Amino acid sequence: MLLTLISLLSLFIVTIGVSFFFKGNLLSFRLFYAYFFISFISSIVAFSYKLDVYIEILWIVIGCLGILIHHSSFKIYVSKLKNIPIFYFGILLFLFVFCCFAPFIVDHYSYYVPSIKILDKYGLFSGVSNLNWSYGQMSFTHIFQATFNDILDTYMRSNALLIIFLLIYIYERKSNYLLLFIPFLLPLTNSPSPDLLVFILSLMLANEVMLCRSNYEQLLPLSALLFISKPSAFVLLFVIFTLSIFHFQIKKIKSSYFIFSLFILLFYVIKNIFISGTPFFPLPVFIADVYWKPNEEILKHSYKIAQTSTFHLKYSLQEIESFSYLERFIHWISFDDFSGIINFTFTISILCFFIYSIIKKKKMYLLFSLFFTLKLIFIFLYSGQFRFLIDIILIIALFLIKRRPIQTKYYSIFSLLFSLLMLSILISLGNSEFIKKNIHSVAIIQPITYNELIKPASYHIKEYTEQKIGNLTVKTPKNYSLVFDLEPFALSKNELKFFSEINSFPQLVDTSNIKKGIILKKHIPHHQLYQK
Known about the structure:
Layout: H1 2-19, H2 27-46, H3 53-69, H4 71-81, H5 86-100, H6 106-121, H7 140-148, H8 159-173, H9 182-185, H10 194-211, H11 220-229, H12 235-247, H13 256-276, H14 296-310, H15 317-322, H16 325-332, H17 338-360, H18 363-383, H19 390-403, H20 408-430, H21 433-438, E1 464-469, E2 472-477, H22 493-501, E3 504-508, E4 518-522, H23 528-531
Antiparallel strand pairs: 1-2, 3-4
Helix pairs in contact: 1-2, 1-3, 2-7, 2-8, 3-4, 5-8, 5-20, 6-7, 8-10, 10-11, 10-19, 11-12, 11-13, 12-18, 14-18, 17-18, 17-19
């Protein structure tokens, strides 16, 4: 916990220093812009260089210079933060405790950390998704983490910064009802998951729209940044863009906010093409005719995973394709498993909100419900995993909470109590033998030990094999199914098996220059392990 506290405090100071280069009355918004600015510039750097310790030192210097140049503004903000109510520090304490847990999200081990390792060692390069299709999802969360994981955040807990930004926003806007969402968000702070950024920005932007205290057009850049962080979170971008058109005159739509938002979206498309050859990753549409574009086998495999994951792997792709859309939907919301129950609950929630919007005849509610419904249809058709709908449910919950407000002090009390409950649940899960046997992850949630009072828990793969296939040397874990923290390039046994089945293997275009990318090449001699 001590190292986490020092790490987060250092990161917070650097981010504040960068935030002074932006204008705005709200410190929380400036902090988010600083977060994205660092990620955006680091992304540009990563096209031609790696995100190593020198890049981190440069950002530390920039942050310190920002504070020195704007030291008077820094003193003002520090004095304001001194007036924060005491219960905020209680929430911060819970935040540091949750950061002590080892990551338990499977994606942390399958592509979060491997993506960050690649960014550290090589930066961005063309065709990296040919090594692992999931690497095409390298988000600003991973880029920010890769920027600071050599000195300030070696345990990769930078996501906790986002909770701190949210707390400052709640304090500045006096929107204490948002504290009720903190317990749900805390478990996502011990891993560089882009979901936390999506959930927090969705709540903040939805709150701004409901408060009507910001010009809608000024929210466009943040909604665009939300979209490129995770394209499935497109609702706020569409809502805010639509409101901007109706709220402003056409001539004002050509403002700097609108142009900057278009630039952000254009950058997202360019980055995707550079990484995977697909402008709207992972959708296989408008694929660029570049030498590193994905082959048909990769796209078919991606489609198969998306479709079978929709039904929690209960049906084969052939069975799913034999269903009519009505049969698919019935299977999707069936009560056969926990996933189906959640799908049913989310669907009913969106439907009820749609009906409520019609009854109330409020344009804003109708607009939200329209895009909620469109997203539900889109997610169901493409990859109906309920996690893609959580941002919608959070916004609906926000609407309900604002409609039935309670006394301000109770929000803080409930937030602290629910955080304690969430902590108790996680510790209990760590002691569950059933969870230990069935969770597909090396990191089983454990009760906090004395060691974690100093540094957060983490896991490392120590045993692996190394082999050269064609011109690419790869590492493979011996006793674990995911590559986790192995240095690039690493492939799991399942990935080796997949490449063997499609008779193709990732190869460097130029062994002397990694930036020229990776392609899939057929007829590579099979290594013994590669054949398994």
